[in-house]
């Protein structure tokens, strides 16, 4: 019955027998027979068929809720079996956005491995909504995202606040008339992070709010590459404050310029995880360790 229940959930979620058969790589008549078999075993109809539209019956809705819960339990069971087979190895899967991967994850990994040298850490990258889904579906033990998450299935622990800062090569021409202000970004040669992340969205919102049109020379998805190219291109950039370290600035002969309007571009980086009762004791301990680490910083 497990197979039929899974196929049933796919039909409900796709809202179409045709789309479900394509996803399952099964012919539509074969899929219809599977659902008919399930209805026969249950002794009740799961769908009301209104033309080409499928509408769940009350028993169909109950069956869908049960099927989803059963699937989640099955995934948890498979995960426990995998953990048992690799007994003695400690593993932690962290979901993080590309920007978070570059800004927060290195420090976080260093903190965890300092106390647990044998810890095997796996990182999965994605956009914030993808990380939320990974954690919700237990494909990641925890997630680090650059926002606060309001999800009834997840816990959200704020770690720290971050905002954008202006980074320039030392002796950049924009400094000739004194400390730059926000309007000096208009027409300024800049290297920016690639589109599609919270960080770039925040940057574009800032430009739109103050009606700024910088001279964008490059768009790159690596903070390190941006820093290395600033001198060569005589360009500036906006980076999350959390990423910058004194040694980074020194090695690349760069300076950070405080601009009041940039401090308003605040984002809260948070740790998200499933309900504590569903987590292993080791994962709960690591979550507490991460939260404690950021309280001390």
TrEMBL record:
> Could you tell me the keywords of this UniProt record?
DNA-binding, Transcription, Transcription regulation
Report whether Repeat shows up as a keyword of the record.
no
Is Transcription among this UniProt entry's keywords? yes
Name the PROSITE patterns for this protein: HTH_LYSR
> Can you name one GO molecular function term for this protein?
DNA-binding transcription factor activity
Which InterPro entries is this protein grouped with?
LysR_HTH_N, LysR_subst-bd, WH-like_DNA-bd_sf, WH_DNA-bd_sf
Q: Describe the location of the HTH lysR-type domain by residue ranges.
A: 1-57
Instruction: Tell me which family the UniProt entry assigns to this protein.
Output: Belongs to the LysR transcriptional regulatory family.
List the protein's name.
Answer: LysR family transcriptional regulator
Please name the source species: Paenibacillus albus
Q: What is the lineage of its organism?
A: Bacteria, Bacillati, Bacillota, Bacilli, Bacillales
């Amino acid at each position: 019955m497990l197979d039929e229940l899974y196929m049933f959930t796919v039909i409900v979620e796709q809202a179409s027998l045709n789309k479900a058969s394509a996803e399952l790589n099964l012919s539509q008549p074969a899929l219809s027979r599977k659902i008919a078999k399930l209805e026969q075993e249950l002794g009740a109809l799961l769908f009301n068929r209104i033309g080409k539209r499928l509408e769940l019956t009350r028993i169909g809705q109950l069956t869908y809720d049960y099927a989803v819960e059963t699937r989640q339990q099955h995934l948890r069971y498979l995960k426990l079996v995998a953990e048992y087979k690799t007994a003695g190895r400690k593993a932690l899967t962290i979901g993080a956005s590309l920007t978070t991967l570059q800004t927060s994850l290195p420090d976080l990994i260093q903190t965890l491995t300092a106390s647990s040298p044998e810890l095997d850490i796996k990182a999965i990258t994605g956009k914030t909504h993808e990380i939320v889904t990974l954690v919700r579906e237990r494909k990641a033990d925890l997630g680090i995202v650059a926002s606060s998450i309001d999800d009834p299935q997840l816990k959200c622990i704020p770690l720290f606040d971050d905002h954008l800062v202006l980074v320039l090569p030392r002796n950049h021409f924009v400094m000739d008339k004194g400390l730059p202000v926000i309007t000096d970004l208009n027409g300024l040669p800049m290297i920016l992070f690639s589109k599609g992340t919270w960080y770039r969205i925040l940057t574009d919102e800032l430009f739109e709010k103050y009606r700024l049109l910088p001279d964008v020379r490059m768009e790159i998805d690596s903070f390190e590459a941006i820093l290395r190219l600033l001198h060569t291109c005589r360009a500036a950039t906006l980076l999350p404050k959390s990423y910058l370290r004194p040694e980074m600035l020194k090695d690349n002969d760069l300076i950070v310029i405080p601009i009041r309007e940039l401090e308003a571009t605040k984002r809260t980086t948070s740790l998200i995880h499933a309900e504590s009762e569903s987590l292993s004791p080791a994962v709960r301990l690591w979550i507490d360790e991460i939260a404690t680490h950021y309280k001390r910083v």
